[in-house]
Amino acid sequence: MRVDLFDFELPPERIALRPVRPRDSARLLLVDGANALGDHHVRDLPQLLRRGDVLVFNDTRVIPAQLEGARGEARIGATLHKRIDLRRWQAFVRNGKRLREGDTITFPAGVSALAEARHADGSWTLAFAGEEPVEVLLERAGTMPLPPYIAGKRPTDEADRSDYQTMFAREEGAVAAPTAALHFTPKLMSALQSAGIAHETLTLHVGAGTFLPVKADDTAEHVMHAEWGRIDLATAARLNKARAGGGRIIAVGTTSLRLLESASGEDGLVHPFEGDTAIFITPGYRFRAIDGLLTNFHLPRSTLFMLVSALMGLEKMQEAYQHAIKEEYRFYSYGDASLLLPER
To answer: pLDDT for 69-82, tens place per residue?
Structure first.
């Protein structure tokens, strides 16, 4: 499909630079395939979902993966993208033309890494020196990797260390937050439980590739970056049992959705999964594992806007986004949310 079909105009003032407080006071646009658009708040979810439904969260934890360093006199920026092994990470590098294989990049707090190899997409393998876990080094030298559309407007600060982390964050390894889950609070989770709405967790370590624009003119020419994920046997079994009993599987965030779909078979069952996924969902895709999605509002021409258009239809999502812009919803990572329930 032509990528320009997924373009739209977004006023810059609609981009949220900070989250609302409390988190569950964020606005929520209900996009129901069978009904008109509905304006709500995230705290209304217990009334918008049904008893027996299951929300599926991503329990990945964002690491301070943004590094600023130098190679000699040249300033070098690195955003870690994907773990290779205990000491080596694939990274997107700013000013990478100043690097040669074998160069050492020095970062603050005595942290350094070898520029080991350059990849075809321009990213690098960085091998960190020393014996301390890389996560410990990042705590000393790194900052939270806010999306470019926020970082370009204000500096990262101490508040982002908690604001850009969900209440489910447990498994370290993401370089971007599963932002739909940022809206949830213990109070809201208690209300959902009382309403008979269950929840499960999986792990997908979100990579910095999620921020990359689609540069191709046609979706068939775009290459997704792989991300590592895991769903265990017990979780898969509970999800399948809930769905067999009439419950709906509602992915919280596109990361949860992508992993659930990667782990599902033609029979619609979710299977245990551990490994990389580079699934790219565009209109025409047949969803197998999920019945709905809670997600934030996405970038024009992005793979994520393509995904929601695949779920609800491009025309419906264009209508929803125009409504959200007109009604002054807040967009992107720190913005408001939408609940997408396709007609089945």
So the answer is: 999 999 999 999 88
User: Please, which residues have CB within 8 angstroms of residue 324's CB and are 6 or more apart in sequence?
Assistant: 29, 297, 331, 336, 338
Instruction: Report which of 292, 189, 169, 277 is spatially closest to residue 226, judged by C-alpha positions.
Output: 277
Over the range 114-146, which residues count as b (16 or more CB within 10 Å of their CB) and which as e?
bbeeeeeeebbbbbbeeeeebeebbeebbbbbb
CA 71 – CA 291 distance, rounded (Å): 49
Structural domains in the chain, CATH included, are 3-62+162-341 (3.40.1780.10), 66-142 (2.40.10.240)
Q: Residues near 226 by Cβ (< 8 Å), separated by ≥ 6? A: 82, 207, 276, 277, 278
For tokens 């499909």, the residue is: 1
Q: What confidence tens digit (pLDDT) does each residue in 246-297 have?
A: 999 999 999 999 999 999 999 999 999 999 999 999 999 999 999 999 999 9
Sign of CA dihedral 250, 14, 189, 62: positive
